[in-house]
Amino acid sequence: MKKRFALLLLVLAAVLGALYANGELDGLIDRFREKDPHRIRLYGNVEIRQVLLGFRVSGRVEAVYREEGERVASGDLLSILDPVPYRIKRSEARGAMLQAKAALDKLHRGFRTEEVREAAAQRDRVQASLDLAEKDYSRISNLFAQKAVAKSELDRASSQRNALRAELAAAENALALMREGYRREDIEAAEAAYEAASARFAAAENALSDTELRSPADGTILTRVTEPGTVVGAGQVVYALALERPIQVRAYIPEPQLGRVRVGMPAQIVTDSSPAPIEGTLTFISPTAEFTPKQVQTEDLRTDLVYRARILVEDDRDGRLKNGMPVTVLMESIEASEGAASR
């Protein structure tokens, strides 16, 4: 009797070993698990977000540094354009900005002390000339009254006196303006010109920095589209990058199972290539029903209504999940979770 029992154990062990060797044991276990009324099984595909990378400016590609399949970190240099044309534009913009700044500083400082002194001296010289002209006119006027000089002499003296009076008024006005400084309107116009020149310089600097194409996030190069020497336009695709995060699974919840799940529930993601589950969280359930998509690999082909769901992968350091990969999502139902919590 004992020998028969031992022989039976050996046969059972051999069968289980054969199933394990052929990879059928996991499937057998899964089939038993499917009968668990508290376990929910969903089917879907991995979605890894992709970014199409290109330069923000146009130019000739000078170098490309990364190849397809290479992993890159955020900020890594991927490619550069010929920077010479943009360096020239930046130098021109910088010169215009410095020129506008010098003009503005001149207005803010006002006239130099030497210029004010010169204007005052000019006013004094004109005043002295006018004093002489006034005396000359008074003398000639007396002589004309005595009929000692001609009318033309009186007219000449009068014209000279009037001209010097006008010149004195202009000199005094110029001196007053110098002492008051430049007009506020002129200063505001110069300030606006300087701001515009500064903005053009900043734009030139940004354009120069945009000749470098850097990775916006951690990821893997999917495709490299451009070769060195190619002239590309602004926005033209140079690389396609698959982001490392976030990785999510698009799955579909059958309508009868909708009331047994809720957002925030933990989930396990299983692939055909690896039996070890990957942890995730149910983060979204669509409010709109749809028919089962054709690409979903379900064991029972049906046209029932389903609700699109998104499961966010918490960690895939091994890189087992690939874009488009079919996966199975396992979750405990709400009643199972509440029952475990009550115990």
Automatic annotation (TrEMBL):
Coiled coil where? 116-214
- Could you tell me the keywords of this UniProt record? Coiled coil
Q: Does the keyword Methyltransferase apply?
A: no
Q: Cellular component terms, GO, for this chain's entry?
A: cell envelope
Residue ranges occupied by any YbhG-like alpha-helical hairpin domain in the UniProt entry: 81-209
**InterPro entries recorded:** HH_YbhG-like (IPR059052), UPF0194_transport (IPR050465)
Kindly give the Pfam families that the UniProt entry links to this protein. HH_YBHG
Establish whether keyword Membrane is in the entry. Answer: no
Q: Where can this protein be found?
A: Cell envelope
The organism's place on the tree of life at top rank = Bacteria
Give the main localization category. other
What is this protein's name?
Answer: Multidrug resistance efflux pump
What organism is the protein native to? Answer: Fretibacterium fastidiosum
